[in-house]
Target: Adenine DNA glycosylase
Amino acid sequence: MDERKEAGGGEDELFFSMRLLEWYNGQKRDLPWRRSRDPYKIWVSEIMLQQTRVDTVIPYFNRFIERFPTIDALAEAPEEEVLKAWEGLGYYSRARNLQSAAQQVKELYGGKVPDDREAVFGLKGVGPYTAGAILSIAFNRPEPAVDGNVMRVLSRFFLIEDDIAKPKTRIKMEALAKSLIPEGEASSFNQALMEHGALTCTPKSPRCLVCPVMERCAGRLAGVETELPVKTKAKPPRPEERLAALVEGRGEHAGRVLIRQRPTRGLLARMWELPHWPAPGDIGAGSGRPGEAAAMDRLRRSLAEAGVAARPEAYMMAAEHTFSHIHWTLQVYRCREEELPQPMAAEARGLYAAGSGAAAGGDAPGGEPALLLPGAEQPGLFADEGGAEEERPDMRWIGREDMANYAFPNVFLKLLNAYFDGQEAAGRR
Ligand code: SF4
Model:
């Protein structure tokens, strides 16, 4: 990036800023978070938009604001409800951070989002992009809000060939973006940049022919617009094969399935899921469906070690879940709860009542806490996933009607819905 491009204020820079602003003012989309300057709403929308398209975000945003209309409402809500409202959006740590930050705002700033740079940066989960978006959009402060979309637009228009995956490029881009903000127009200009990246200067096929700044776009004039921005590829997520159990209850649990809660920290913290474990290397790891007999035997042992008496009966399906650094392939088996011999069942009940060897009770939001086999070796279950060594998972038997009370990662939500749909269809036949 040369000095001229960094400085802003040149003819091209002025042209870019004014044209984009004019274009935005003429045809900006009517989006729910644009109907007010409420920094809380802008903040929520920006966090949601970091991971998902506008069309998908709108219903989530409306429901979230209806349920948590103010900072105080979000700060005081049970975490489970916040996660449930976020369910399907992914990146659940963002929802947790948003709630923690709301609690900070409530305690430190009386429930009002501060308009001070230092204070906004000090909020949990608020990085340079979100801080810039809140300060500029809500308070019209001349702060840049630079994300991947904005870097793409700037790379193309100013023909910048620096690698946008590098932190120093981001810093340069922020300086450039800040220098481009017309006086008194931070709110509209930053939104214009974002809108342009979302609607016109799109990643794969930029719509140059209808672009308001086409005539001076250096990337386009050089014929390299689709080669920009330059970005080195991140390492692909590490593949991990896992065996998952969809355990159907019997007797008093008939019609229900077993779910467990993830640990208090680490991946998908405190969300609910079907029990699953890493598939040993000799069970077809990485090659799709594992050898059934060996997999079922392994799953049965894992269930027993976790305190669940259940027998795998049939392979159901494979399901995928991708994190930034890990890609899970879950081989899901339908399992059936086994009846415990009377003395063992009595012991399990006794252990549960005594508060050991069973799920940490708490207030069950529907569903029924699972009784676990005496002697189950549950602590350390999630140690390889960032959970604490001493944590024991909470397990519940739930029916479809209970699903609304638990927050599930998408992959398990889909599995459970598919299962209950199948059961209902079978019941109608
Ligand atoms: S002309 Fe094309 S590449 Fe250049 S800013 Fe417009 S849409 Fe993007």
About this structure: The radius of gyration is 26 Å. The CA atoms of residues 31 and 55 lie 10 Å apart.
